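Reply to dn_fold:

You asked what the input looked like. This is it:
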Amino acid sequence: MSDGSAAAAVADAHRREWTFVLAATVRVARDIDLAEECVQDAYASALRTWARDGVPANPAAWLVTTARNRALDVLRREQTLRGKLPLLVDPEPSYQSSDVDGDGGEAFGVPDDRLRLIFTCCHPALAREAQVALTLRLVCGVSTSDIAAAFLVTEPTMAARVTRAKKKIAAARIPYRVPQPAELPDRLDAVLTVIHLLYTTGHTAPSGGALVRLDLVARAVELARVLRLLMPDEREVRGLLALLLLGDARRATRTDEAGKLLLLEDQDRSRWDANAIGEAHELVVGALRGGSAGRFGLQAAIAAVHAQAPSYADTDWVEVLGLYDELLRVWPSPVVALNRAVAVAMVRGPQAGLDELTVLSADGRLAGYRYLPAARADLLRRLGRAVEAADAYQEALVLTENDAERAFLSARLAAL
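and this is what came back:
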């Protein structure tokens, strides 16, 4: 096999199997840092071995075996390691008969190694942002730069947060293990946030040539489904799965055949995934039933209004704005305020929306967020203020690294 073919196979295995291989290796290594190093070594070894011997029939199994063997070698050479580094998970044989329910599943109730590791990383002893960032970086394989973009901070700042979180785990000897059922709710919001950020990073890649990273989207939807099986009565779990399904239902229409970005108003709604929308609708109803809705349920409700409108012109923007008002009350995020400003513009006119964006700009929390100048540019364009719109488009271009988004902004700028 050529080096190029082997490299492509390794890259594909990295996209598809990183989380699975890491989660399986942690069970042996008992330490995330050690497991990560062994997995990285396994991928490096695959690049050499597969070029010589060919890609194995089951790349994931090959990688797991190689990574676990490396971990065992390290542990044998350094017998004192277990006493110095934090115990992350119980050894494989530690489950007793009392740990198994009547259906043969683990009593701890986390049926997926990847989801189990996400719950593990979201330990309440760590700050929320550290939980989410550490999980996205180590468990989900998202780059530090993409995580930084999701958190609206610089890459060095995010790298420092991840490093501090790992040091705290080692220094405080935080026991990482599968949480008991009673511990799951305290970690749920962080886990939901991780899966949602994993999805949004794939839904619109912060950088690169493709608008969508299908591997991240598929991984997020799969984890959300497993979480739904694990916690079927949690309304926010329903809301998250619904939100992901509704966003992914439009995947085929978000770009044209040439890869050009298409806005919601330009998409062919007849090509949206009707089955996914129908499934999501049932989940939204469950997420909103029985009291005040949470942030994921409300976001899913907003997405459902868009999905059910027969056309962009027929969208119930008054309802969308009302849902954003409630979402902003539940989750006072500047990104929510930005999206709400767009809804304000649709209900009360572009100047009203622009006034909202002016307040957001003065706030400063969205400094460096590419969608703020992009939204301002669009409203200025609709108001006929071409010179100001051009300046805003230029600002958005400076902040945008995704090729499809850059092409769209450039076309709008040229049209002015």
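Strands lie at 207-208, 401-402.
Hope that clears it up.
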